[in-house]
Amino acid sequence: MRLRRVYDETGPDDGTRVLVDRIWPRGVRRGSFDEWLKDVAPSTELRDWYGHDPTKFTEFRRRYLAELKLPAQSRALAQLRKLEKSGTVTVLTATKEADISHAKILVDLLH
Predict the structure, then answer these.
(1) Which of 15, 25, 26, 82 fits a disulfide with 94 by CB distance 3.0 to 4.6 angstroms?
(2) Are 52 and 100 in contact (CB under 8 A)?
(3) In sequence order, which residues have a C-beta less than 8 Å from that of residue 53 and are 6 or more positions away?
(4) C-alpha 30: how far from its chain's center?
């Protein structure tokens, strides 16, 4: 499982490309990815609270992991795990700072 930004060039070894953002990224055409698992993304409230503030990342991670236990998020996470079992998965996000994003938390969780 690997992490990339949606704006990065597609690589030949990306495998299944999965968008994990709740909102469709600007300037990206539909059909650019194999899957869109928007339910695995943090809630709008949590995302707005966090605002990609590095000083809030530890608390964001704790709250996000708690959200992943909710039914819809749990089903989406199970789908991501299922995809991983069948080969390489590239988790995609539009955020500029992927290393402090929910996508990074997902990749770390599934490794």
Answers:
(1) 25
(2) yes
(3) none
(4) 17
pTM of the shown model: 0.93
pLDDT greater than 90 at residue 31: no
Which segments of 1-111 are extended strands (E)?
Answer: 2-5, 16-19, 35-36, 89-93
Helix (H) or strand (E) holding 72: helix 71-85
d(CA 54, CA 91): 21
In the predicted model, is pLDDT for residue 88 greater than 90? yes
- Report the phi/psi class of residue 39: left, alpha or beta, with left for phi > 0 and alpha for psi in -120 to 50: alpha
11 against 3, higher pLDDT: 3
Q: Percent of the chain, pLDDT > 70? A: 100
Count Cα atoms within 13 angstroms, Cβ side, for 107. Answer: 21
- Amino acid identity of residue 88, one-letter, is T
Instruction: Report the distance separating Cα 54 and Cα 56, nearest Å.
Output: 5
